[in-house]
Each structure stands twice: as structure tokens, then as C-alpha cells.
Design a protein that fits this description.
By secondary structure, the protein is α/β, with parallel strands linked by helices. The chain folds into three domains: 3-87 and 292-302, Four Helix Bundle (Hemerythrin (Met), subunit A); 98-279, P-loop containing nucleotide triphosphate hydrolases (Rossmann fold), CATH 3.40.50.300; 306-449, Signal recognition particle, SRP54 subunit, M-domain (434 Repressor (Amino-terminal Domain), Orthogonal Bundle), CATH 1.10.260. The protein contains 22 helices and eight strands. It has helices at 3-18, 24-40, 45-59, 66-85, 110-123, 140-150, 164-175, 193-206, 223-234, 250-260, 281-288, 294-304, 307-319, 324-333, 340-346, 357-360, 364-375, 379-383, 386-390, 392-402, 406-424, 437-449; strands spanning 98-103, 128-133, 154-156, 180-185, 210-216, 238-242, 264-268, 276-278. It has an eight-stranded mixed beta sheet with strand order 3-2-4-1-5-6-7-8, sandwiched between helices. Helix 6 links the parallel strand 2 and strand 3. The longest helix has 20 residues, at 66-85. The chain is elongated and about 105 Å long. The two termini are 62 Å apart. The model is unreliable at 333-343, 345-363, 426-437 and 443-455 (pLDDT under 50). Bound molecules: guanosine-5'-diphosphate and magnesium ion (MG). Residues 104, 106-112, 187, 242-243, 245-246, 268-271, 275 line the site of guanosine-5'-diphosphate.
């Protein structure tokens, strides 16, 4: 059921969660994937566009701290998708008799759904009766009878009688002892005058407590038009979408119903009697995203972002100085990530600053050399790498000990210098707020000029 949509949504949220920072490329990619998936699920283009715009806007919103952005965007995406699916509006049974009339076009899945819900409500301690008022389709009564017998449900049919109202009247008295009466009606290929007239007559005779429109998921966004037509004709109280298992268009049907404000009570997810579930947008989405709930996803993001390392780095930034250990540990904590281009993502506000190319190159291989280097350094050297400049012999010693070239150590020190320089240059930098656009530009300009080598 909507497996493909689920898979792509999962990928999109993972992409956000796993990214160290949200750059334009990432946001564009995520939005592209989302759009493709939602449109394939037949969600209307205008809804898809609205959602994309909101995400893009949040991604560039400077009021949101960089380190909060991922969480913010995932929450936004989640909330927007839930709202696309509509409100949670469960079918609330009355204490008195529930007369639930099922309407819908031919083949929508009414009879099947009535059987499923008969079983559903009987299992929950209700006295259930099914009544077959589809007087037009040959063998409709027999289908209901077979289903009812198979699942031990009470049923009332009158094969041969083609007056639906008179069948209902015939059993009305007997039905009084049941509290959930599920009423099967006839469908046509479209809502025409004849069908409309029949529905209205039944409506008068039965006075249903619920009028439910049943639609198969493969109608996609066309569900909106159908729901509106039926709403206009008989004031339906809710919708059931069947055959969610057999089409990729279920997203369209669900979101289209949400647009009409016709709440979706249940969805049918297969041909078997238990293939029915109450429709809860939040839970539905959680399952689609393959997570327990939003909170667990947020936890996941938090666990990817190593908070301890982050706090340490933040502290270094506040004090205007980092130790080499801080820097390398930070990079290491991010798993198999690269170098300073990634650390940059951890510094609030620094993301979109134009940092010179050389500094941004991926440094995967370097990181492992850095670790070797660190192992050969004394704590004193790591805390204050400046002493390496003063005593060149130290560099030779470390190079020998770690089996790397002198130039590797110099490269590490150079990057370390640049990062510290970057931090120092952030006058009035408030780490809790990140950098202003102006500060960033200033910094970028400054780094455009940093070319001198220290060794
Ligand atoms: N795969 C699948 N098939 C369904 C589902 N609900 C109904 N069907 C099938 O859809 C067809 C029409 O269903 P039916 O209940 O007779 O529709 P009605 O004309 O509205 O009463 C039947 O072949 C059902 O087995 C569902 O949730 N999943
Ligand atoms: Mg039927």
C-alpha cells in the first residue's frame, strides 16, 4: 500500500536527517524526490507545490538556527503531510441504534467493506446486522449472504424483491434488536438521476445515522469530484477508501478527500475480512515513513548529530579556540564524513558562507591520517599546536611516529589554523544565534585572501 511513496518519503527524511547541514543542493534534491513521489501517488500538483514551497522557505529561513533546521524541516514535512491527509475523524458509534448506509458507484467495494466492518464491529461487542438493499445487481443479495455466513454475521436479504425501501420496511422491526446496522445499497457507473432518486428515498425511509461514500483508491484525485457530487446530493457524513493495496494512487484519493473535508473513516487494504483499518492520518503517515512516531524520528536526528561533540565544539567556538583533538574528534564523530567542509556545517550560521574551494575539498583519506598524527602527539601539542611552529623538530618526530609525511602534518595545522581564524574573526558572534549574513560575507571575504602558508 503506497510502498513506493513510503520508500521515497523515507529516503527524503533520511537524507535530511543524515545530512550535516542543509545546503541548497540537498534541499532541491529532497524537494524533487518528494514532488515526484507525491505526483506519482496522484496527489494534486497544487498541493504538491504548496508543500514544496513551505519546505524551501523553511530551509532558507534565517530565523531558524542551523542546528535546529533539520529537525524543523522534518517536523514541518511530517505535519504538512499529515494535514494533506486530513483530520482524524473516527466513526463514532451512537449509544442508540447506528444505521450506517453505504453509498458508492458500482464495484467501489461496498459489499466487501460491509462484511469487513460487520466483522470489525461484532468483534468489538456490538450486535451487528447486514441488510442487502442492492436490488439491481444480479446475485448481489447472494454475495452478501455468502459473506455474512462465512463470518457468522446476521443478515437480512430479500432476493427477487426489487424495491429497496420495501425490503427495509419488511425487516425494520427485527432490526430493532441490533445496534449496528450496515446497509448495502446499489451502485451505478455514475451518480445519475435514477441512483440519486433511490438514495434519497432510502434516506427518507431509513434516516441513517451515517451515510458513507465508498470509493476505490484507484480513482485517485477524482475522489474529490465524486465526494463533492455525493455530498451535494445526500450530505454524506464520511468516506471509506477501498483497494488501497492495489494501486499507487491512494495518496491522491486520500488527499482529495481531505480537501473536501469529507473525513476518511476507514481504508480497505485487501480482499480478506481483516483487511480494514481505521484511518488515522498521523498513524498512517508514521507507518508510511516506517517509524513509530514523529518523536522517534526526531530522536534519530538527534542521535546522528553527536550532541556531546557538538557542545564541545560550541564551547571551543565561544572561547575563540579549539584544540586539535576537538577538531578531529568532531569530524570522527560524524562517521565517515570529510573534513572542515563538514565541521563548517556544525557551526551555526557558517553554512552558506563562501569558504574557499581548497578548504572544502573532501578529506576522507586525510581524516585517517589525522588520527594517526594525533596519536603521535603529546597532550600539550594537541591543546596548543602553536608550539609545533616554534619547534620544527616536533613535526619531524610526529611524522616519524605516525608514518605520515611532514606535509600532512602541515596541512592539518593549516586547516586547524583556518578554522580558529574563522572563529576568532567572528566579532560579536553569538553562537546561540548563528552569524548574520553580513558577518558571513565579511568572513568569506577574509578567507578569500588567506593564502599564505605558515611553513
Ligand atoms: N484488493 C482489494 N480488492 C477489494 C477491496 N475491497 C473490495 N475489493 C474487490 O473489489 C471488487 C468489488 O467489490 P464489491 O464489494 O463487490 O463492490 P460493490 O459493487 O461496491 O459492492 C471485488 O472483487 C472485491 O473483492 C480491497 O480493499 N482490496
Ligand atoms: Mg455490492
Amino acid at each position: 500500500m503506497l510502498e513506493k511513496l513510503g520508500e521515497i518519503l523515507r529516503k527524503a527524511t533520511d537524507r535530511i536527517a543524515n545530512a550535516l547541514f542543509l545546503d541548497k543542493n540537498l534541499v532541491d534534491q529532497v524537494i524533487r524526490d518528494l514532488q515526484r513521489a507525491l505526483i506519482e501517488a496522484d496527489v494534486s500538483i497544487s498541493l504538491v507545490k504548496e508543500l514544496s514551497d513551505k519546505i524551501r522557505k523553511a530551509a532558507i529561513d534565517e530565523r531558524i538556527r542551523e542546528i535546529d533546521k533539520k529537525e524543523h524541516i522534518i517536523k514541518l514535512l511530517h505535519d504538512e503531510l499529515v494535514s494533506l491527509l486530513g483530520e482524524y475523524k473516527p466513526l463514532a458509534l451512537q449509544k442508540t441504534q447506528n444505521r450506517i448506509m453505504f453509498l458508492g458507484l458500482y464495484g467501489a467495494g461496498k459489499t466487501t467493506m460491509i462484511t469487513k466492518l460487520g466483522n470489525y464491529y461484532a468483534k468489538r461487542g456490538n450486535k451487528v446486522a447486514l441488510i442487502g438493499l442492492d436490488v439491481h445487481r444480479p446475485a448481489a443479495a447472494e454475495q452478501l449472504e455468502q459473506n455474512a455466513k462465512k463470518h457468522n454475521l446476521n443478515y437480512f436479504i430479500d432476493p427477487g424483491n426489487n424495491d429497496a425501501v420495501s425490503i427495509y420496511k419488511k425487516y425494520e422491526k427485527q432490526l430493532k434488536t441490533f445496534n449496528v446496522i450496515l446497509i448495502d445499497t446499489a451502485g451505478r457507473h455514475m451518480l445519475d438521476e435514477t441512483l440519486l432518486k433511490e438514495i434519497k428515498e432510502l434516506n427518507r425511509a431509513i434516516n441513517p445515522t451515517e451515510k458513507i461514500l465508498v470509493m476505490p483508491a484507484d480513482v485517485g484525485q477524482a475522489a474529490k469530484k465524486q465526494a463533492k457530487e455525493f455530498q451535494g446530493a445526500v450530505e454524506i457524513s464520511g468516506v471509506i477508501i477501498t483497494r488501497m493495496d492495489s494501486t499507487a494512487k491512494g495518496g491522491g484519493a486520500l488527499t482529495a478527500c481531505a480537501e473536501t473535508k469529507a473525513g476518511v473513516y476507514f481504508i480497505g487494504t485487501g480482499e480478506k475480512v481483516n483487511d480494514v483499518e481505521e484511518f488515522n492520518p498521523e498513524r498512517f503517515l508514521s507507518r508510511l515513513l516506517g517509524m513509530g512516531d514523529l518523536q522517534s524520528l526526531i530522536e534519530k536526528i538527534k542521535s546522528i548529530t553527536d550532541e556531546k561533540a557538538q557542545a564541545k565544539l560550541q564551547k571551543g567556538i565561544e572561547q575563540g579556540k579549539l584544540s586539535l583533538d576537538d577538531v578531529v574528534a568532531q569530524v570522527k564523530s560524524m562517521g565517515d564524513m570529510g573534513g572542515f567542509d563538514k565541521i563548517k556545517g556544525m557551526i551555526p550560521g557558517l553554512n552558506s558562507a563562501k569558504i574557499p574551494e581548497g578548504m572544502l575539498e573532501s578529506q576522507q583519506a586525510k581524516i585517517s591520517r589525522w588520527e594517526h598524527i594525533l596519536k603521535s602527539m603529546t597532550p600539550e601539542e594537541k591543546a596548543d599546536p602553536e608550539i609545533l611552529q616554534k619547534e620544527h623538530s616536533r613535526i619531524n618526530r610526529i611524522a616519524k611516529g605516525s608514518g605520515v609525511a611532514n606535509s600532512d602534518i602541515k596541512a592539518l595545522l593549516k586547516q586547524y589554523d583556518m578554522l580558529n581564524e574563522m572563529i576568532k574573526s567572528q566579532e560579536d558572534f553569538d553562537p546561540s544565534k548563528g552569524m548574520s549574513q553580513k558577518q558571513m560575507q565579511k568572513l568569506a571575504k577574509k578567507f578569500g585572501k588567506v593564502k599564505k602558508m605558515r611553513f
